[in-house]
Amino acid sequence: MRKIISFMHISLDGFVAGPNGEMNWIKVDEEIFDYVGKRISEGDTALYGRVTYQMMENYWPTAGDKPGASKHDIEHSKWYKKVHKVVLSKTMKEDGLINTTIINGNISNNINEIKQQPGNDILLFGSPGATHSLIQLGLIDGYWLFVNPIVLGKGIPLFVDIKDKIKLKLLSTRQFTSGVTELNYTVDRQ
Fold this sequence. Notes:
- The protein is α/β, with parallel strands linked by helices.
- The chain has five helices and ten strands.
- The chain is globular, with a radius of gyration of 16 Å.
């Protein structure tokens, strides 16, 4: 069965965005882009909440075609165009969307059906609202976290309203020269 892996940049105090959704505190550079690019290039399905999907859709389909596009933009744009996208949204319709599935209800059954299909891990990018819903439903199988060396003090937390403990097993760590630390966990369901 395929796994859903939540890919998030977080602050040291556990926030994924500032109080108004700010993400200008996230450190990204070529070292991180290259590392992340290798991992996500193996992915064939990306999962988003509506807001993150619309932000991605407004940028990535043409990012690699722009004059002076970076290596990262070219590579990620190619990947984005070919990857199957799954979007959690109560308001969007699939009409006219290419290679995109909208889930607007019965999240558990729909996500579990996708997890049963052949393919690689399903990468959940950003999307704090969608992540919170999937955590509540016990549908996230792993966390791929990039801890940024900053304390925000307030903002949108990664974990909210956790009813039961979530036991994790550390798979790997990596320190980047920017000070960002990668923590790769799997959910321990035993």
